[in-house]
Design a protein that fits this description.
single chain; Immunoglobulin-like; 26% strand; alpha+beta
Length: 211
Amino acid sequence: MDKFEELKAYKELLDSNIITQEEFDKKKKELLSYNTPITEISPKVTDLSDKSQNENSLDESKKRSLPALSQRTIILFVILLVVAGIGVGVLIKKNEKKGKKSSSASSGSSYSYEIDYSTYCLLYLKVSNVSVSHSGNYAYVSETITNNGTSSIRYVKVKAACKNASGKIIDTDWTYAVDSSWLDPGESKNFEMMVKDTSKEIRTASVTVEY
């Protein structure tokens, strides 16, 4: 086939959108060059090759994006775990004050209450049987503390206002009515406070829970 006829045939392929302009120009250059051998091309094969390359390129792009997506998912999951852990920690600390004590006082477990500690002490701890005696240069204020609530408790501080015969407060002092040993619900404990009184003026005392 004459090269001009062949070129005309390729022009018809171009006009029919079977081959691209780039393919036509390349073929035109080959046909019009005396030093370049004429090489037939198959437009359909070229199209399929380009389509295959595009598909392979898309697959590779997807493969590269998968590890990045996986890393982002892992990082997000770790962040959620950390936030959840902080939330659980806060709830645990709150429940230490609001929850009931689940084991007996003798087990040495920490105390916890349905209400806050100070309110519990004011509502449910009662001081009774207050008396004053003397020995040497000291007055001894004796009393009984009772736990009328539903939770075990410890480390309860009380304050004594010591008064003379006319009812005037002449001294104050405090002590732990309940120390590290638990005071269970319904349980009472006797304790004593020693106040210096060289002149033996103290006759009575008012004792209040200071928690």
